[in-house]
Design goal:
This protein has about 425 residues and is α/β, with parallel strands linked by helices. The chain is about 50% helix and about 15% strand. The chain contains 18 helices and 12 strands. Bound molecules: pyridoxal-5'-phosphate (PLP). Pyridoxal-5'-phosphate binds near residues 47, 118 and 237.
Length: about 425
């Protein structure tokens, strides 16, 4: 039977546009194949943190807590917006220790449980913009951002991830301000996703000066356009593995201790327990809101819960109850924190070795500060990934460059991986 004809018969245009197996899984598959053939293959493909022996890094405190939950927590539905204690906890985990000070200056927070951080991204796109609107992203991003935008019927506007000109190296605030103004003149609302700190796929984290410039751009846009709702969504999926996990809360607190928060500005966090609690597959996350109106925060919770109900029904209860148990016990929270610190140490050690080796070459690695990944911009990412694979290093060719999973390469193989990449890059880019 002709699949094309069947597609024409069954699928509307929106569905027919959907193509492509996931590049990351394709290259991971190639790594596995090489391993199975007995090759000394190095795995730089996956987006999960692996121990130096190649096994998945798993925080045992979380596993123990999951196994000790009651039958009801295994089996029952959670309330549509999430277990009340979990909503409070997810807010604390996303915003960090500054939460109380933010409440003290008159801000209110709220949350809705979601299936992972992806669910939080989806809820914001689906509820804060209308079909046909544009969403603002940085020029380099986790590719599911594009899929989510397409699923929500949104077009994409970009601002550059690095600043080539004068000023802050990572924030081209003039460009950001101009893009925000452009959007404000053409639609009723603005939504922008910012994956920081520990950006996927580069590892870039903004410093306090960079965060301040970004926040000012959104604040100014809100002030200049009082009729436009301006939402800055902070995707902090990798934050616990960054040197400043809660830097945004510091920046926001500093800013609004002195200045008035315009009522048309909303800040959201996308909380994800996938990496922080090593439960990628359990789909545990939340969208967290911060705004001066308590009533509006509650209303947003209601709207998002309805969108969730009509999309995935509700978020799984088991991981919510496990997180409540862990963080409700000083001992368990401490043990979880110790393991998280060990895992962060593993990433820092690998990254330091990788960056040091790269710095010995002329290769233009993008700044790689924190988190799971590093990124080499290049004209022909597939050629470089293929060349690296000839030397048994498997990385992921993406649009505009190759992604290296620092998270999945054993510490002892990091230098070798960097050498292979430098050689591969020299073959094509000089
Ligand atoms: C940039 C970014 N944002 C959000 C997520 C959300 O992950 P999850 O839906 O598993 O919580 C990921 C996961 O890989 C990510 O890389």
């Amino acid at each position: 039977m002709d699949v094309g004809r069947l597609e024409d018969t069954f699928l509307p245009l929106e569905s027919k546009k959907k193509t492509g197996s996931d590049t990351i899984f394709t290259w991971y598959g190639r790594y596995l194949q090489a391993k199975a053939l007995g090759e000394p293959a190095i795995n730089g493909t996956v987006g999960s943190l692996l121990e130096d022996d190649g096994s998945l890094a798993v925080n045992s405190v979380v596993m123990d807590s999951l196994r000790s939950q009651s039958d009801v927590d295994f089996s029952s539905y959670a309330p549509l917006p999430g277990l009340p204690e979990y909503k409070k906890l997810a807010t604390e985990l996303a915003v960090g220790p500054r939460l109380a000070s933010l409440h003290d200056i008159g801000l209110h927070s709220g949350a809705v449980a979601t299936p992972g951080g992806t669910g939080a991204l989806y809820l914001s796109a689906r509820t804060m913009l209308a079909v046909g609107d544009t969403i603002l992203f940085r020029s380099r991003r986790w590719s599911p951002y594009d899929t989510l935008a397409a699923e929500c019927g949104l077009s994409i506007t970009e601002w550059p991830i690095l600043n080539e000109g004068n000023g802050h190296a990572k924030v081209n605030h003039l460009e950001l301000e101009s893009v925000l103004e452009d959007i404000a003149t053409s639609q009723k609302r603005i939504l922008s996703w910012l994956n920081d700190p520990a950006h996927n796929p580069t590892g870039i984290s903004l410093d306090s000066e960079g965060r301040d410039l970004v926040l000012d751009a959104f604040l100014n846009c809100a002030r200049n356009n009082p009729g436009i709702g301006v939402t800055l969504f902070l995707d902090t999926a990798y934050a616990v593995y960054a040197d400043e996990p809660y830097g945004w809360s510091e920046t926001i607190h500093k800013k609004f201790s002195w200045s008035e928060w315009p009522e048309n500005l909303l800040i959201c966090w996308g909380f994800s327990a996938s990496k922080s609690h090593t439960i990628y597959g359990l789909r545990c996350g939340a969208i967290v809101f911060l705004h001066p109106s308590e009533d509006y925060v509650n209303r947003l919770g209601e709207v998002c819960a309805v969108t969730g109900r009509g999309t995935w029904s509700l978020a799984p209860r088991l991981p919510q109850s496990a997180l409540i148990s862990i963080h409700g016990s000083e001992t368990e929270a401490h043990s979880w924190g110790e393991e998280k610190t060990r895992l962060k140490g593993l990433l820092s050690k690998r990254r330091a070795a990788f960056n040091a080796k790269m710095a010995e070459s002329e290769l233009p690695l993008m700044p790689s500060d924190d988190g799971y990944f590093a990124f080499i911009p290049c004209d022909d990412p597939v050629a470089i990934a293929e060349k690296a694979a000839e030397s048994q290093l498997y990385v992921v060719p993406l649009k505009g460059g190759v992604r290296i999973g620092i998270c999945s390469i054993a510490s002892s193989q990091v230098e070798r991986a960097a050498e292979i990449l430098i050689d591969a890059w020299r073959c094509f880019e000089q």
